[in-house]
Amino acid sequence: MMTSQGDRPGVHMAAEIAEQPAVLAGLLDRRSDIAGVADAIAKRPPRFALLAARGSSDHAALYAKYLIEVLLGLPAGLVSPSTVTLYGAQPDLRDVLLITVSQSGGSPDLVEFTASARERGALTVAVSNTPSSPLHGAAELAVDIGAGTEKAVAATKTYSATLLSLYLLIDAVRGGKGADAEGIGELAQQALDGSVDSVQRAVDRYRFVNRVITAGRGYSYATALESALKLAETSYLAARAYSGADLLHGPVAAIDEETAVLAVTSRGKGGGAMGDVLDAVSSRGADVVAVGSAAADVPADVRIALPETAEELSPILEILPAQRVALGLSLARGVDPDNPRGLNKVTKTR
């Protein structure tokens, strides 16, 4: 996607970040549509669940993996589409739930994998922002995240809307009505409004950094992955994401005074497990930005505190200031995040 002549750099990404509270509130109002899909799943209880996705949607799928395993008590895994599309594997998927997550719904490998899984007995569900997409046609059931057209190459509102859609779907499968998500639009607005100054401090502090590590545990590991992707694709930073547990199993040795660490620390079991990680990176001289509802309580050089919500919903709020940090760093480094080099809005792989 090329930025239109006369558009300021980053104007689309900034606008779409700001749209998210309204998008999330609107999605919550349409939860009955998602409940219908969940009811169809509940009537065909799966043995286990698989998730297929690429890019930002893959991070949303990882979030859904945690939801399925914790809230539904089902084994869940992320598939490798190339086992089918390149190697011609034909796994037995009877009584398996396959959720394919794709903002565009147009990646050939995801469409082919979904169609193949349906033929081989899986109950297939497409979660996408494009109801007219090939993916919706390939799947038996579909969830429209309804985020509206996204002009910036970097996914922002489609990512957070996908997270909420997946939460509402999985919560409804267990008989929930999304009660913990009530007011999520207002909380998202608070998260954006309340983090302006701390986001700017992070941008000012890290505009010249070249190496960033992002880390989170549990549900928030998805936030760490998505934050690293946003920093890499908008600011061309060497950003690497780790589970906090994996970071301590070796990679922490590479952290020093030249390393910036974005640590996702929300209240709950995942955020509580980040204590050893923060101690380890701080002891090595890393400069730490803490993002989350527990940010005020941890050792960090910059704290981006967010409203508290149920732990399984915290990634929806955590990603908002991280998106703005990526936007701010991109502009400060002279890059147009609406038109990153070598990228297109829809990436087609096989």
Short characterization:
This protein has 350 residues and is an alpha/beta fold. 45% of the residues lie in helices and 15% in strands.
Describe this structure in words.
Keywords: Repeat. The structure is a single chain. The chain has helices spanning 11-18, 20-29, 31-42, 55-72, 82-85, 108-119, 134-138, 157-173, 184-194, 196-206, 221-235, 244-247, 269-272, 275-283, 314-332; strands at 48-53, 76-78, 96-102, 123-128, 141-144, 211-216, 238-243, 260-264, 287-292, 302-305. A 5-stranded parallel sheet has the order 2-1-3-4-5, sandwiched between helices. The protein has a 5-stranded parallel sheet with strand order 7-6-8-9-10, sandwiched between helices. It is globular, with a radius of gyration of 19 Å. The protein has 350 residues and is an alpha/beta fold. The protein contains 15 helices and 10 strands. The chain folds into 2 domains: 11-181, Glucose-6-phosphate isomerase like protein, domain 1 (Rossmann fold, 3-Layer(aba) Sandwich), CATH 3.40.50.10490; 195-332, Rossmann fold, CATH 3.40.50.10490. The relative contact order is 0.16.
